[in-house]
Amino acid sequence: MGNKTKQTGKTEVYPFWYMKDIKNMMDYFKMKGQWHWYLVFNFGLLLGRRISDTLYLKWSDFYYENGRMKDETDIVEWKTGKTVRLYICPACQEALKLYIDKTGTDPMDNYNDFVYGTAQMSQLLENKEEYPEENWKELMMKAIQSHAAAFRKQFKLAADACNIQYATSTHSLRKNFGYWSVKLHPYDVTTVDKLQGIFSHSDRNTTLHYIGISREDEKKLYCDMGDFITDISNGKKPIIKNSPVIPLKAEDFREILSKCWDMAQNGEDKFDGINNLIGMAEKCMV
């Protein structure tokens, strides 16, 4: 069965659930020598932007006029009109250097042009003053959408070749940024809040659903129920996971540990101490 990408109607797509799928996709573009799409794919993973914003990036977003590479840049989002800051991490810089090496592109010769635009996009950019602003924006958006459609086609070919069995599309790259950010920082309770800001979402639940964490949690509920019923059918006593899970900020956790130590040193009653600590934890719940 091939990769399930967007079809007629609204079909939800997901981030890459498995690290091997990310590597296989990257290797596919490398093996094919499709360095243009390789860079678009990488920047989608590393910057977490919409495809329209990714395709609109210019060399001047990554380099100063003296040829030195930037580590951050400001862009204006096409969809929202908001100015947002992108942080250009070392992995982003290395992907760009590889692209330059493989394609022979000179950033300084193309300083004000797109990193991976089309001839139509470049022509519109060069002749911007010849159009009324709204007409120019409409024409540029159509050119970007055409380029995005070309990438979407290549993305699907790559996903099929890599035998990815769940629904993905170019929007998976942006979702992937959020999903794996949470996985990389499991003990940082502010990660989702940061992502909410990056994605301009109105609340945490929207972000959790968007990046696939809610779906993953829902799936776990079904799997746990499956284990529960299987144990019952096999005559085994199911294990009920009834221990409370209380998320705490690191500084609150340190304070509770410190209090625990003080109580032990003072010889406080064990059960009273536990109740006091639980009360502290409940007050500090995130």
Report the major sheet: 2 strands, antiparallel
CATH class of the largest domain: Mainly Alpha
Q: Ranges with pLDDT <50 over ≥5 residues?
A: none
Strand order of the largest sheet: 1-2
Helix content: 55-70%
Q: What is the general shape?
A: elongated
Terminal Cα separation, in Å?
42 Å
CATH architecture of the largest domain: Orthogonal Bundle
Would you tell me which CATH topology of the largest domain applies?
hpI Integrase, Chain A
In total, how many beta strands?
Answer: 2
- Rounded mean pLDDT score: 89
- The ordered string of helix (H) and strand (E) elements is HHHEEHHHHHHHHH
Radius of gyration: 25 Å
How many independent structural domains? Answer: 3
Q: Structural class, please?
A: mainly alpha
**What is the tally of helical segments?**
12
Instruction: Note the beta-strand portion.
Output: under 5%
Identify the notable features of this structure and list them briefly.
286 residues; mainly alpha; hpI Integrase, Chain A; 12 helices; elongated
Summarize the topology.
Layout: H1 19-31, H2 35-47, H3 51-55, E1 72-76, E2 83-87, H4 90-103, H5 119-126, H6 133-161, H7 171-184, H8 191-198, H9 204-210, H10 213-233, H11 250-265, H12 270-283
Antiparallel strand pairs: 1-2
Protein model, in words:
- By secondary structure, the chain is mainly α.
- The protein has three domains: 19-173, hpI Integrase, Chain A (Orthogonal Bundle); 212-242; 250-283.
- It contains twelve helices and two strands, in the order H-H-H-E-E-H-H-H-H-H-H-H-H-H.
- The protein has a two-stranded antiparallel ribbon.
- Helix 2 (35-47) runs antiparallel to helix 4 (90-103) and helix 11 (250-265) packs antiparallel against helix 12.
- The longest helix has 29 residues, at 133-161.
- The radius of gyration is 25 Å and the shape is elongated.
- The mean pLDDT is 89.
